[in-house]
Amino acid sequence: MRLARGRPAGAPPTPPGGGGRRKRVRRLGVALAYVPVVAYAAALLLPLYYVVISSFKTNQTIFLAPLEPPARLSFTAYGRAEALANLSGAIENSVLVSLGAELVALALSVLAAFGIARIPSRLSSVIEGLFGLGFLVPVMAVLVPTFLLAVFTGLLHSLLFLVLFYPATVLPLSIILLTQFMRTIPLEVEESATIDGATRLQVLRHIILPLSMPGLATIAILNIITFWNEYLFALILTDEGSRTVQVALPFLKEPQSVDFALLSAGIVITLVPVYAAYVVLQRRMQEALVAGAVKG
Fold it and tell me: Which end of the chain is more exposed for a tag (fewer CB within 10 A), N or C?
């Protein structure tokens, strides 16, 4: 007897409409699985939406219709934010500090991670553990010594001190993450380059760094967000001419009143550079996450 194609011998015949019912059940399950994802995304986007539309409103319209889009776009709050807190100058300071500290942090992290991950040594695990101890140091414990160091070096109220100090706050995480990523690169690639006469510096520049770009992009995004949002040390170590954007935000206030449109405009201005950096580097970050999932 010829058997039906796709159905094993002895299997009961498929009832009419059974395949369609299973497809509907499967689609319903997929739809239900997306419900918490959509709800979580909405919970994240709702505050951002509220802040953006509030920056184009007045205090009265914010309280009367908090979630309705503005009837017309008014950039008055943005102009007042610039006049009160000089946000353009503060943003320029934050950009200089973030980019400068990022370059220093990446240079130190790459060299340290390469030494720990790719150069055989009995001290590699010990050094990696020492960097891990950096997570145990509380921020408040180094606040006073950092201030005294700034005074002693004559760099108090100078952006240069922030550029040199901020990398120390992210080196433990950057080195540990980059070390683990470099360890996933096959040793055979490095050995073949060494046999061809490449030095360690050439191996790092032409092999390790290109293959580590997704990991570097991930670290760069995390560091940029940390540097941009840092407030406590910037408040203590800067003055009016060198203040960063996070320190400038509290100056967005009118005498004897609270203008929520003004505050919303300042928040939107501070968020734009961070989102721009993420948009530029998000593909590399996604590649690093996918690579880690596959290799793990």
Answer: N
